[in-house]
Amino acid sequence: MCVEGMFKSNTGLFKAIDNFLQGCSIDFIVMKYPPFVINKNNGIESEMLHTISEVFNININMHIEETVRDWGERYPNGTWSGKLKQR
Fold it and tell me: Its domain of life (predicted)?
């Protein structure tokens, strides 16, 4: 329960999902687009990704592009070209 911007009890907000993803790594490809993405540590969306990584216990690998060049396309067999190429 939240009262005046503070939780009334000291229980964890995400108690049921602690260590949910057990440190898995997830790749993110983002475009530099202030104020949303400035660099890996600054910008609204960069900060949001870091917060999500802490809450869900994941490691994020953020790849920042200065401009959108070749995001790639999906082939019928499910693989990708360009930046979205699956590893």
Answer: Eukaryota
Taking the C-alpha atoms of residue 58 and residue 50, their distance in angstroms, rounded to an integer, is 9
Are 65 and 29 within 8 A, CB to CB? Answer: yes
Cβ atoms of 45 and 30 closer than 8 Å: yes
Q: What distance in Å separates the CA atoms of residue 48 and residue 46, rounded to the nearest whole number?
A: 5
In tens, the pLDDT along 63-86 reads 777 766 666 788 898 887 876 665
The domain ranges of the chain are: 17-84
**Cα-based angle 62, 47, 56 (whole degrees, multiple of 5):** 75
**Helix or strand (DSSP H, E) at 3:** strand 2-3
